[in-house]
Design goal:
By secondary structure, the chain is an alpha/beta fold. It folds into three domains: 3-84, Winged helix-like DNA-binding domain superfamily/Winged helix DNA-binding domain (Arc Repressor Mutant, subunit A), CATH 1.10.10; 88-168 and 264-286, 3-Layer(aba) Sandwich (D-Maltodextrin-Binding Protein, domain 2), CATH 3.40.190; 169-261, 3-Layer(aba) Sandwich (D-Maltodextrin-Binding Protein, domain 2). It is built from eleven helices and eleven strands. It has helices at 3-15, 18-24, 29-43, 59-85, 99-104, 106-116, 129-137, 194-202, 221-229, 239-247, 276-286, and strands at 48-49, 56-57, 93-98, 122-127, 143-148, 161-176, 186-188, 214-217, 234-238, 251-253, 261-270. Strands 3, 4, 5, 6, 7, 8, 9, 10 and 11 form a nine-stranded mixed sheet that branches. A two-stranded antiparallel ribbon has the order 1-2. The longest helix is centred in the N-terminal third of the chain and has 27 residues, at 59-85.
Length: 287
């Protein structure tokens, strides 16, 4: 069995929704359903009860869940051990973070942390927002740092997790100043991604004559920023990423303020005991 099949199974077991699990696995729902059916055919028995909502595990599925979680944790442990063997750091705080926050919010936040605890070291790993929480659950990190919004959490289930809000941000539609007044397309995020779902919600009530055709897609806010700066279209970008561009007049707001969405910046940990440095950092954040 492929590791991707294990992760597909776990995604559906954790969310209870084919649609949400497919989004987390970055494939279409029909393709994801076919993958689950293929797993069940290989196992020779149904693993999910589709007659209830949310989808539930059958007794066989419950048994397989135990093994699937063990396999996933084992792989995660192997990856982490391999990374640690090649690291020059001793017992660093391991943080998995969205790429956008890594280049915009994190450096200044970490400077404040190390002023209070100068002995701390950190290993920072950039990931898609959706993957950050998955890596945290699998033990590849001590903390995850992501954007979130009240109606759009980057994870389907908060069981076993603790979260703290570190700050706020805003996602807003912008374009290159020289493109104002011209018809432009949308520089969009990958379908099903967290920021992609935020943009979809924001643009639902656009008047029919203002509907914007998507002309480019990328999972990266940094790539979309570069494309917007180059004049290729309009992009919905976190303000923390483009504050200098807005102040310098290189990028300007492309739609009225109602097409903006406030975001929180969350740091997340698993329940249970962590290393002394991690516990000290969490206490510092709480205090």
């Amino acid at each position: 069995m492929e590791l991707t099949e294990i992760e597909d199974f776990l995604a559906l077991a954790r969310t209870g929704s084919f649609r949400r699990a497919a989004e987390l696995r970055f494939i279409t729902q029909p393709a994801f359903s076919r993958r689950i059916m293929a797993i069940e055919e290989r196992m020779g028995t149904p693993l999910f009860d589709r007659s209830v909502t949310p989808v539930d595990l059958t007794p066989a599925g419950q048994r397989f869940l135990v093994h699937a979680e063990q396999i996933s944790r084992g792989i995660a442990k192997a990856v982490e051990d391999t990374r640690a063997a090649s690291s020059a750091l001793t017992n660093p705080v391991r943080i998995v973070i969205s790429h956008t926050l890594a280049v915009s919010f994190f450096p200044f936040w970490w400077k404040q942390c190390t002023r209070a605890m100068p002995h701390l070291s950190v290993r920072l790993t950039g990931q898609r927002i959706e993957q950050c929480v998955s890596d945290l659950r699998e033990g590849l990190a001590d903390f995850a740092m992501v954007h979130a919004a009240p109606s759009f959490l980057p994870f389907a289930d908060g069981t076993g997790l603790q979260s703290k809000t570190l700050g706020t941000d805003t996602i807003l539609p912008v374009m290159a100043k020289r493109m104002m007044g011209q018809s432009v397309g949308l520089l969009g995020y990958a379908p099903g991604s967290f920021l992609g779902r935020c943009v979809e919600a924001l643009t639902l009530d656009l008047p029919r004559h203002r509907k914007i055709e998507t002309v480019f897609e990328s999972p990266s806010s940094e790539v979309l920023r570069a494309m917007a700066m180059a004049g290729f279209g309009m992009a919905f970008l976190p303000k923390s990423l483009i504050e200098d561009d807005l102040e310098g007049g290189f990028l300007v707001s492309a739609l009225p303020k109602r097409y903006q969405m406030d975001l929180d910046i969350h740091i997340i940990r698993r329940n249970g005991t962590m290393t002394p440095d991690c516990e000290a950092l969490w206490k510092h954040l709480k205090d």
